[in-house]
């Protein structure tokens, strides 16, 4: 298996595992009334079933169908980026990308089928199922946060996968982020070939050997013209 195929395989496997675990956990909690409100660790962790029409952490800045379209486009864009950069990326980076896409896919699937089963409206208007809730409250003596919930948001397995991937990329950016791919040289930036005939207006200098023997061709070795003898000139005749 080539290095590129290995990275694609790991990426795909992580995406599938995260999406399956996310949908499985949501289905189990949704269909089990006893899990809708269940304390797991007293004062720390519990199941608290709810639905979220917005983004992660309950952020809702637009109608649900707009948020769904943005989520789908972002998932496609990140997948395209991961595939285009895989040659220069390491395996750890591709696994993190798989966690992000797997989590995004899990929440997108919620929006599709919960829209129908939950009766929320159009196919993009489904709400995301959340159920994991940290219930720890800061001690009263702590300034500014005393008495407040440490993490008031309810989340799911998909959110955990996305958060773990982002935090890992931030902490280990030096080792995980891919190297910048080499830039392609434009034809206009390529150095011109060293060709003396490129400019016909410039005459290339002759080699030194030609200058040294210039004018000593065979015609210079022939005897010059012989002057006609004047029979009347003195000393002649």
What would a concise description of this structure say?
With about 240 residues, this protein is an alpha+beta fold. It is about 45% helix and about 10% strand. It has one domain (about 5-175).
Describe this structure in words.
With 237 residues, the chain is of the alpha+beta class. The protein is 44% helix and 9% strand. It is built from seven helices and four strands. It has helices at residues 3-30, 64-85, 91-117, 157-171, 173-176, 208-212, 218-221; strands at 37-41, 45-52, 128-134, 154-155. The chain has a four-stranded antiparallel β-sheet with strand order 1-2-3-4. The chain is globular.
Secondary-structure blueprint of this entry?
Elements lengths: L2 H28 L6 E5 L3 E8 L11 H22 L5 H27 L10 E7 L19 E2 L1 H15 L1 H4 L31 H5 L5 H4 L16
Antiparallel strand pairs: 1-2, 2-3, 3-4
The average pLDDT is 82
Strand content: 5-15%
Give helix % range.
40-55%
- Largest sheet strand order: 1-2-3-4
How many structural domains?
1
Sheet of most strands: 4 strands, antiparallel
Distance between the termini: 107 Å
Shape: globular
Based on DSSP secondary structure assignment, what is the total number of beta strands? Answer: 4
Number of helices: 7
Key words describing this protein structure:
237 residues; alpha+beta; four-stranded antiparallel β-sheet; 7 helices; 9% strand; globular
